[in-house]
Amino acid sequence: MSNPLLSLTVNGEQHSLDVPGDAPLLMVLRNDLQLNGPKYGCGLGQCGACSVLVDGKCARACVIPVRGVAGRHVTTLEGLGNARSPHIVQQAFIEEQAAQCGYCLNGMIMATVALLHVNPNPTDTDIRNALAHNLCRCGTHIEILQAVRRAARQLSESAEAQR
Predict the structure, then answer these.
(1) pLDDT one-digit tens code per residue, 90-132
(2) Among 18, 16, 58, which Cα is nearest to 38's?
(3) Cα–Cα nearest to 150, from 68, 77, 80, 89
(4) Do the Cβ atoms of 52 and 75 come closer than 8 Å?
(5) Of the candidates 151, 68, 44, which has an alpha carbon nearest to the alpha carbon of residue 108?
(6) Can you tell me the distance from the alpha carbon of 137 to that of 125, in angstroms, rounded to the nearest whole number?
(7) Strand 73-75 vs strand 6-10: parallel, antiparallel, or unpaired?
(8) I need a labelling partner for 28 at 20 to 30 A (CA). Which of 2, 22, 98, 121 fits?
């Protein structure tokens, strides 16, 4: 028996998918849409490796049933930018060398984008709070903080230049 088609908007593209509504969003993104930005980490919504933006807010794709995002806008790491034209946050992480193994980066970047969307001038405490639930085992925390600060500065400068 076939599932009813689910309509998803992912990275600005509309998709109609024949998947069970209770399938984890992460599995649909990775297996059906071939998007590898969100990572499978803990499967419990605790590590942040699977983070995506749902209507601009950071969410854990491993614990969200795909039917829960029908009609909403989902953005993955791939939807932010690419190697030729990275998002300001992605570029800041590159410039600050804020990766070691890179497994946590998807979650760190997505959480940073969500933070800077609501708080373009975060304090170090704001940054730590926003990233507190994203686990990094390699210890690049200092570089990650520097990357978030750099991205905030660059977004602020970009906004000033547009005025």
Answers:
(1) 999 999 999 888 888 999 999 999 999 999 999 999 999 999 9
(2) 58
(3) 89
(4) yes
(5) 151
(6) 20
(7) parallel
(8) 98
